[in-house]
Amino acid sequence: MRPHFSRLTKPMKIPLATLAALTLLAAFASSARAEIVEKTLVNGLKVIVKTDRRAPVVVNQVWYRAGSMDENYGVTGVAHVLEHMMFKGTKDTPSGEFSKRIAAAGGRENAFTNRDHTAYFQTLQKDRLELAMKLEADRMANLILSADEFAKEINVVMEERRMRTEDNPHSRLYEAMMAAAYQTHPYHHPVIGWMQDLKNMTVDDARQWYQNWYAPNNATVVIAGDVEPQQVFTWAEKYYGPLAARPLPVRKAVSEVAQAGLRQLILKAPAKLPVLALAWQTPRLLDPTRDSDPYALEILAGVLDGHASARLNQSLVREKQLATEVGAGYDSISRGPALFMVDATPAEGQSAAAVEKALKDEIARLVKEGVSENELKRVKAQVLASQVYQQDSLFYQAMLIGEWTTAGMDYKDRETRYARLKEVTAEQVQAVAKKYLVDDRLTVAVLDPQPLPTDKPKFGVNPMGGRHGR
């Protein structure tokens, strides 16, 4: 399965009993924090290496700054389709051989397409890194895009869309909500593309996308693990260095029009229970040093849904029993405008309208009464703990660097982000709730459940914020 990720992420829910160890854990993470060095080749390829010697393993990731937001009308989904085609071979590595060679070397590989980027990755023993770099450089420049292979793979992608979106009412609701929340920005389109565009897509569309964006001067190689940076740079020069830089298409500035009133939609689809999703227009992080609202919004998400005793779960699920599950999420790192999201599944016999009112009542209470210092301290510990625990994974160490870099941010500012999160005050959390969680910025999407057909699977899990792929 080659997943692409949505932007709705939730704070990691960590048992409160573990929080007493956070200081020691943070100290360990700090001492284990590895050297990060980078080099930009003459052709514009950026190579970033993070050394971590805790295991003889390495993660190799190649990030292209080209995602669904760079697509044009009529070819939505082409970034994801090209991701599939990247495994169809070159002259030196025939179709299917890439995965076979990585597997034969004891490694694992995958890829994902996002609204902001497309990335390919492998996890291997450290002595097999050269193989992965060689294979990635080869397909960066020498991919063979045949009409026959494309005809097969476009059918795979369309079937993926049928299974993961069109046959899944929750995914359809999320797609509809995004299309309503973003009316002028390309985030309006689903990463997998609209079905009509997929039906009309040709191999020439995929070839044009490859020629436009798959160039060393539009890519970042991130490598994390038990490696010597100078050896990595030597291999990068050997395999990527000969690839020529190419002029990139002009990226026109795009933005989302300021919302001027509440947007609402109802989606009727076969389902067991209704689902409610709310999305407010909010700013993304632009200047890690000067910005403050994105940090306060991140803590606000933790206040609402950072742990089992967080406000929304405590009120709507435990006390009032209006919902079976509820969550909140906000992600400040992106190339486009951000959303603050809340989603909930009403309990059986409860209406989406009742849950929506309860959600808004909780937000109104927060705006009126604020957040106590004890609550703020607990939430900060949870949010910061999720950042610390991510450092245990080589993959996520590399992924954070790649995500920040392709979003146009300096990955070194991640440390600034941690510091600024610690500085968020209760007054700032209250202020951003009052400023941004208002109806004029809100899109409300409701899944109105219809009778379930007997030959279809029953969807009972809300996948908001999940991942999907083939």
In short:
With 470 residues, the protein is an alpha+beta fold.
Tally of helical runs: 16
Q: Low-confidence parts, pLDDT < 50 over ≥5 residues? A: 1-32, 458-470
Shape: globular
Biggest sheet architecture: 6 strands, mixed
CATH topology of the largest domain: Cytochrome Bc1 Complex, Chain A, domain 1
- In CATH terms, the superfamily of the largest domain is Metalloenzyme, LuxS/M16 peptidase-like
Distance separating the two termini: 4 Å
Assign the structural class, choosing from mainly alpha, mainly beta, alpha/beta, alpha+beta, or little secondary structure.
alpha+beta
- Counted up, domains total 2
- What is the number of beta strands? 13
Give the proportion of residues in helices.
40-55%
Strand coverage percent: 15-25%
Give me some keywords for this one.
Cytochrome Bc1 Complex, Chain A, domain 1; single chain; disordered N terminus; 470 residues; globular
What does this structure look like?
46% of the residues are buried. Strands 2-3-7-4-6-5 form a six-stranded mixed β-sheet, sandwiched between helices. 41% of the residues lie in helices and 19% in strands. Strand 2 (36-40) and strand 3 (46-51) form a beta hairpin. It is an alpha+beta fold and 470 residues long. The protein contains 16 helices and 13 strands. It has two domains: 30-239, Metalloenzyme, LuxS/M16 peptidase-like (Cytochrome Bc1 Complex, Chain A, domain 1, 2-Layer Sandwich); 263-464, Cytochrome Bc1 Complex, Chain A, domain 1. The model is unreliable at 1-32 and 458-470 (pLDDT under 50). It is globular and about 60 Å long. Helix 1 (22-32) runs parallel beside helix 13 and helix 10 (293-305) crosses helix 13 (373-390).
